Amino acid sequence: MKRLHLFFLLSVLIGLSPAIGQQAGFNCYTLVVGEEASQNGSLLIAHNEDDHGENLVNWFKVPRKVHDEGETITLHNGAVIPQVDTTYEYLWLEMPGMEFADSYMNEHGVTIASNACPSREDQPELTDGGIGYWLRRLMAERGSSAREAVQIGGELVEKYGYASSGRTYTVADQDEAWVMSVVNGKHWVAQRVPDNKVMIIPNYYTITSVNLSNDEIYMGSDDLVSYAKKRGWYEPKRDGAFNFRKVYGNPQTLASPRNIPRKWRGLELLTGKNYEMEEPFPFAVKPKEKITRQKIMKVLADHYEGTEWDESQYYKYGNPHAGGVNSICAPHNQYGFVAELRKDMPVDIGAVMWLAPRRPCIQPYVPWYFGMAEIPGDFALTNPQSALENHFYAPENILEYNEEHAFAEYAQYAEQVDAHYGKYIEEIKAFKSELQEEMLKKQDEIEKKALKLYDSDKEASVKVLFDFTKKYLDITRDQMDKIYN
User: Which CA distances in Å does 138 have to 92, 141, 419?
Assistant: First the structure.
């Protein structure tokens, strides 16, 4: 009953608070599973990328590149920075026109996604306009490990300042995962996720205690605490132990109904424990049992089914994306992925991004291996260089403009399903579940075949991976066409 009352209270708050309501289009959700907490011993990163408006997603494989001496990069706001000698190869999920939406996986397995986390900073220090869009890109291009990528990102923030309210980047490789929270201006902090735990990020800072003297677990700005004292945000006698989340986070965001239920739901699904909405949630928790890929894929597709937060009541009252309280799988979801990072095989095979375009509740996750030498043609209608040059100049009616793009097909399908959710969803769920299990069962066989070829014929090895992915993309798209028509 307590939760039910809170449900109605938060529903009212969504309508009454413009500051809360404006977050509707920035509803990303990230889940990290340490290697000791996952069933197959891999480090897992799960992420729903949610963004406002009509969008398109390009898939690119950007090659390693040796740069000329004296080459520079001009950031979006005007700062000019030196280029490094060599930038790494990476898989790039690009969203034209969006400054903070791209995701990356590089040749060292370094995988990066992000969540908007508004800060309370209202006097940011920026140099030459600061850094925003380019931060994660430079971390992916230059980081040979998750730890190094975070260090690179921290140095850039301290030099140029972060040109947005705030954000949390999840940065992981096969060995460790880090949560890096940046604040508008020149402050940041990062914490390593324990190997035996899972953690969840909605759209607020989740780092609480900070101990920068322990650099195995924490990194960050040296003046993180002293600056907060100077601004009057933190007073030890008044506030007790320093809590980054409370001190630097935007108070409205910390209490937002677009954040609290999603964090609560993920924790309960993964731990089997009951959490009260009013309590401060822990940074990371031990799961009830070892986490499978299927489990976190299910979390990313969740709409609070079976709880008082399910406004559609198992789709009886329409589709679950039409309500006032955002679910984990939300109307503005653009893609969901589960990155599986394994250290017992080459990155080309051991780093795989299981991708569900547009809506993870209706799409099977298809594996995109890092080693794939090419991307199926209609998943990107241009090339990486052209995409970068035109990134901030997305056309109006972008899906209509790119109607031959594969993502337009996924977006149209999602709209069709939403219009008739109750009619289609059982058939979709059955197909999705059956195909997902088939891919997961065949994965081991395909990877053994690719590994056998890898040392003697790398081209043939990665062709095995490409064919596996392409086969299931075609099956999925054939099924979409059947239902859509």
Answer: 12, 5, 41
**Residue 439 within any structural domain of the chain:** no
Q: Give φ, ψ of 191 to 5 degrees.
A: -135, 140
Judge contact between 264 and 277, C-beta under 8 A: yes
Burial letters 313-327, b for 16+ CB under 10 A, else e: eebeeebbbebebbb
Query: What's the CA gap between 203 and 213, in Å, rounded?
Result: 27
Tell me what pLDDT residue 254 has: 83
pLDDT in tens, 341-352: 999 999 999 999
Strand 351-357 to strand 333-341: parallel, antiparallel, or no bridges (unpaired)?
antiparallel
Tokens 């891919």 sit on residue = 439
At residue 277 the predicted structure's pLDDT band, cuts being 50, 70 and 90, is confident
Could you tell me the residue range of the domain that residue 171 belongs to? 2-396
C-alpha 124/C-alpha 239 separation (Å) is 23
Q: Rounded distance, CA 442 to CA 198, Å?
A: 27
Whether 480 is covered by a domain: the verdict is: no
> Whole-angstrom Cα distance, residue 189 to residue 206?
11
SS3 184: strand
Give the span between the Cα atoms of 114 and 131, in whole angstroms. Answer: 15
Query: Cα separation of 361 and 299, whole Å?
Result: 9
Contact 299, 266 (CB under 8 A): yes
CATH code (residue 343): 3.60.60.10
pLDDT digits (tens, 9 = 90+) for 233-253: 999 999 999 999 999 999 988
Residue 446 in domain: no
8 A C-beta contact, residue 35 and residue 318: no
Q: Which amino acid is at 292?
A: T
**How many angstroms separate the CA atoms of 366 and 472, rounded?**
7
- Residue 269 predicted with pLDDT over 90: yes
Residue 381 lies in a domain: yes
Task: Name the domain count of the chain.
Answer: 1
Q: How many helices (H) and strands (E) does the chain have?
A: 16, 18
Q: What is the pLDDT of residue 23?
A: 42
Give the pairing type, strands 58-62 and 198-201: unpaired
Question: DSSP string spanning 130-146?
Answer: -BSTHHHHHHHHH-SSH
pLDDT classification of 129: cutoffs 50, 70, 90:
very high
Mean pLDDT for the stretch of residues 88-101: 97
Is 385 in contact with 405 (CB distance < 8 Å)? Answer: no
Average of per-residue pLDDT across 371-397? 95
Model pLDDT, residue 112? 98
Q: Report the 10 Å Cβ neighbour count for 127.
A: 12
